[in-house]
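Look at one such:
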Amino acid sequence: MSKGVMTYLPPHDGHPGIEIAWAADCREAFNQGVKLAQTWLDNARSGWLWAVMIAERDLLPCAIERRAFEVGFLSRIHQRMCSHQGCGERAMTCTTGDYFGHRKTLTLAEARCQG
């Protein structure tokens, strides 16, 4: 069985990065999510966070890409939030569905492209 395609969120705002394995190549969608979150953070948080995320996410063609976009987007927001709370070193290392931890590999192998 293939381990999937890796995406990587680099450390930012003093919070560690993370590697995530996907069942399909979702790197572009993941990176789009990270970039959009950073744009939102850099532009004085213009607009509602949820509206910004949903509007762009829904343009993606399949479920696994939408999930990758969400994970990238929310992971970048999480890094910023934790940088202000000082929780970078206390982040829990858990499996998918819980909080992300220090550079752990999460496998989202059950996610399938359902166009």
Notes: The radius of gyration is 14 Å. The first strand starts at residue 5 and ends at 9.
